[in-house]
Sequence to fold (416 residues):
Amino acid sequence: MSPNAFRVAHSDNSRPVRIGLAALTKMAFDGADFAPIWNRLIADLQNNPANAAALHDLSFIAQLTGDPQTGASLQSRALVQDVLFRSPCASKPPRLRLLAFAAPTDIGGNTPIEFLLEGSDVELQTLYLAPGLALPDPLPEHDVAIVTIPDSVETRPMLAQVEAFAPQWPRPILNLPQRIKGLDRDLLFDALQGVPGVEIPATGRVSRNDLADVALSDVILHDVIADGAFPLIVRPAGSHAGKGLEKLDAPDAIEAYLAAHPSDEFFVSRFVDYGDADGQFRKQRIVFVDRHPYACHMAVCDEWKVWYLNADMAGNAEKRLEEERFMVEFDEDFGRRHSDALAQIAARIGLDYFAIDCAETRDGKLLIFEADNASIVHNMDSPEVFPYKAPQIRKIFDAFVAMLDKYARNAEACAA
Fold:
């Protein structure tokens, strides 16, 4: 389709609605038995083999139950039949319609927009892009669009596709691809270096052979990263959720690391010890909506590799009390201390919606680990165990919907 030929249709309510990633993930989070849902979806497909929404839900269930290969196969079958999928909406008719551009990735790939729209009166339709997949003609009715595609070697053709048609798209597009492509670890350093109050080690992207050579000479290490020094943090390029992430304390650790990780390319940076005096490491996730920062969570752990799950926040009341203070007092405490740095981070990254994982160094700087447009923000935690979370997460959800409203209103005003 020529960019000049884009046409927007009236709403099509006949399209099947997916159960959706958010609802299915919540079921998995709560330990639900997926067998009855799986069997019902299979029966739906037997009655209507063209039900691509059922195939997509089956793909989600397969991945959530630990079978990514079956999930990928089911997703491919769904996309052969259709590239556009409706998600549940709390309001009929919806007050606002959002179109999300997505890539055929695993369930942790695209921005999980469904969670952000929980309980809202915004209808979400997800349009999958990939080489060989045609755009629907006419386009689905929508008030605003958003790019949920992450940056990776596999998804760059899809980001390039959006970048090409974005100037002619008939509605506003949030999270433009050229900004998403600046989030990769080596590029993020380029974007944020020099921000007052921010600590971000230089990150080098190195080949397998170059990483092996780092073990031989400090000169080679400084060629890879200007501030390079052991201990080093190493991870395979393109990895997520800490897969392959290791701290190498000395050059002689590189050979064993390479033997255990067959990747061809790696990210390398110096290790910053952000442990506090009590021996604990504290990592915060901050979400930016329309350039305003919001507290998402804080994990406290006795290991430097901190994730919310390995921190055992649910099992430790003292840690939860600390997280509660961080979230409830964010605007007056953490957010105020780092307000200038957070404002510059938002401006330099330039996305409408993204998150950072960060910590505070011992000298009070904001240590940046990563920035991502696809970080999950959810309200699935038990209200009994985490009573303080829901009000704070709702702030993020409400801000996200308010941002969509603002862009839609501005577009209407320009068209008037």
User: Anything to note?
Assistant: The longest helix spans residues 389-415. The longest strand covers residues 292-301. Residues 247 and 369 are 14 Å apart (CA to CA).
